């Protein structure tokens, strides 16, 4: 009898797990939803492979990350030229070009690059470009990415404007990655309402890799950030432990005796927990 039971178990195991023997792409994990998450049961609703990747990969998707605290200008310009003009520059190559064609002495003095330095380097590459001033509505109406200076968190910074949708301005930040601002907030930090654009001739057109994608829309709402920014860590830890205790406990069905409950007098599911006291 034991051998029959063991053989049946082995047949069931190999029948349900055999599909995993096939080669899967790197980063594949198996997501399994069981009928009852509190019980390590063999009964499964469905099981399927899911592709995952670190969040930081998507965070800096299409962005050349700045290598130095003063190099946001060169990183932003490299991001724009690579993503919009189809070039394949490194930040060092862009920095070398800015130093060569820009105002060298002033760059060394202020330890940063200006929009004029960018224009001179872009011209040397064979592209037309220009710096402009405008309002938020002008930026929203723009059909191409642009470098915009912002005054944020106590310092001045260059980011690449990607687009606008549903009240939010999306930018490629060489320091923070793909982020977005509420439109009113962006209007406050936009430094001097200045923008720098690169104009492409018809023969220079390339695929715009800085256009908004579905992944760009996955952001945390400002209200949610504000709500949880100052949450008491101990309170959060207690709630987490409370949820784990419920998950590990046994359920039973009882009549709700709470007179203030909407389910008073009705059957409800509760958790039977076992608590241990340290000596």
From TrEMBL:
One MF term in the entry's GO annotations: peptidase activity
One CC-aspect GO term: membrane
CDD domains documented for this protein: Peptidase_C39G
Biological process according to GO: proteolysis
Segments forming domain Peptidase C39: 66-197
Pfam families associated with the record: Peptidase_C39
Position of the signal peptide: none
Protein name: Peptidase C39 domain-containing protein
């Amino acid at each position: 009898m034991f051998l029959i039971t063991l053989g049946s178990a082995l047949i069931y195991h190999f029948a349900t797990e055999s599909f995993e023997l096939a080669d899967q792409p790197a980063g594949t994990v198996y997501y399994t939803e069981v009928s009852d998450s509190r019980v390590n049961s063999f009964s499964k609703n469905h099981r399927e492979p899911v592709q995952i990747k670190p969040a930081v990969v998507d965070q800096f998707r299409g962005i050349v990350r700045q290598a130095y605290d003063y190099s946001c200008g060169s990183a932003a310009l490299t991001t724009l030229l690579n993503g919009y003009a189809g070039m394949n520059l490194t930040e060092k190559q862009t920095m070398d070009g800015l130093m060569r064609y820009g105002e060298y002495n002033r760059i060394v003095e202020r330890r940063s690059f200006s929009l004029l330095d960018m224009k001179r380097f872009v011209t040397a590459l064979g592209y037309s470009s220009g710096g402009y001033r405008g309002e938020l509505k002008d930026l929203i109406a723009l059909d191409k990415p642009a470098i915009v200076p912002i005054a944020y968190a106590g310092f001045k910074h260059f980011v690449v404007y990607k687009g606008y949708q549903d009240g939010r301005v999306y930018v490629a930040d060489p320091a923070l990655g793909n982020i977005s601002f509420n439109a009113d907030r962006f209007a406050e930090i936009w430094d001097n309402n200045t923008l720098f654009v690169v104009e492409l001739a018809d023969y220079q057109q390339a695929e715009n890799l800085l256009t908004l994608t579905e992944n760009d829309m996955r952001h945390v709402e400002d209200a949610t950030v504000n709500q949880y920014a100052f949450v008491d860590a101990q309170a959060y830890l207690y709630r987490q432990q409370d949820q784990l205790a419920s998950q590990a406990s046994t359920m039973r069905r009882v009549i709700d005796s709470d007179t203030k409950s909407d389910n008073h007098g009705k059957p409800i599911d509760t958790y039977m927990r076992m608590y241990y006291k340290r000596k």
